[in-house]
Amino acid sequence: MRRLLHVELTRLRWRRAVLLLLLAVVALPVVFGVARAWSTTPPSAEDLARVDQQVAEETARPYVQKQLERCLAKPQRFGLAADDPDLQAQCESFVLPQREWFLYYETLDLVQERDETGLAVVALVSVLLLLAGTTLVGHDWNSGSMSNQLLFETRRTRVWTAKALVVFAVSLVLSLVVFSSYWLALWAAARSRDLPSSTGILVDCLQDGLRGALVAAGAALGGYALTMLFRSTVATLGVLFAVAVAGGALIAVLGIDAQFQPQTNIAAVVLDGADYYVQVPDECFTDRPPPGIACDEEKVLPAANGSIYVGSFLLLAGAASVLSFRRRDVP
Fold first, then answer.
1. 76-80, 130-134, 160-164, 295-299: which range is least confident on average?
2. Quick one: which of 114, 206, 221 has its CA closest to 164?
3. Of 141, 55, 57, 49, whose CA–CA distance to 102 is shortest?
4. Residue 248's pLDDT is what?
5. Which of 17, 49, 133, 235 could form a disulfide with 223 if both were Cys (CB 3.0 to 4.6 A apart)?
6. Strand (E) positions, the chain?
7. 68 and 96 in contact (C-beta within 8 Å)?
């Protein structure tokens, strides 16, 4: 088995298409992280000075000062109390132009990044590794080298297992390094800007990266297993595309709950639980809904349920792939 693993690693190093995909796995998250850090950069001192001057000019306009006088004279019209000791400050904050009116910038929030961009990076890397897994073994079938490999090792289960271990291990290690570096870089950026960046937040992000690496490695393994089953990269990608389109349409037509949708279950695995919405009875929208009716529109899908959902498809594809490889003739 050790020799088989070494051979498969060597074969992976010499697959240019696979190396390009692995390079994209590293490069695209870097670009994504740099873009997020750049788009959330705080305004410079020059920008703040320019905005403050604009605020001062707008504040000095006659109609603005007139509106302020109306607020102080009749605060009830502005929803304020006349006996409020801070009436002057309340009217100024309500009427006078504020800095945020003229200057908007997005703050780097690691908690929000986990639910949005972090999940998007995991999805992107998973797709690239799926392509790498199917491309690696697809070349063996297209070139006819699979039959030559079986001349040196006739035990097909060992051959299948060796290829699967290499695909899974390389994908897991690479994606784990990429995700950990991604979160460490964003955490360092947030810390340098004096934003919320406690050690607990970093640990949560790194745990998301670990679970995301398992999902990405599972995607690579699934692509490999399906290609060993269909013996064609094109067939594998075609089937996956058809299932994604037809499955999404079928779920939408049948009105199946979001807990059975693939994206919800993958999000539950990566984020250690995912929120999803369910349709509630019309009685819930009355003033007094009948007792015993569940009116909570938002539910939480645990990570364990998502893992069982994703793992079941991966196990099914792997089992079918192994059985097919053992019994079907190899041209």
1. 295-299
2. 221
3. 55
4. 67
5. 133
6. 274-277, 298-301
7. yes
The CA distance from 180 to 1, in Å, is 30
Distance CA 201, CA 69 (A): 47
pLDDT at 221: 95
Phi, psi of 301 (to 5 degrees): -95, 115
Cβ–Cβ < 8 Å for 91, 78: yes
Q: Is the pLDDT of residue 282 over 70?
A: no
How far the first Cα of the chain sits from its last, in Å, is 24
> What confidence tens digit (pLDDT) does each residue in 237-260 have?
888 888 777 776 777 676 677 778
Q: Is the dihedral of CA 302, 304, 306, 309 positive or negative?
A: negative
From the centroid of its chain, how far is CA 175? 13
CA distances for 44 relative to 41, 50, 278, angstroms? 9, 10, 45
**HSE (CB half, 13 Å, CA atoms) of 310?**
25
CA-to-CA distance for 30 and 141, rounded, in angstroms?
33
**What was the pLDDT predicted at 283?**
67
Instruction: Give ∠ CA 194-199-202 in degrees, rounded to 5.
Output: 90
User: Contact at 8 Å (CB) between 110 and 186?
Assistant: yes
How far is it, in rounded angstroms, from Cα 120 to Cα 36? 12
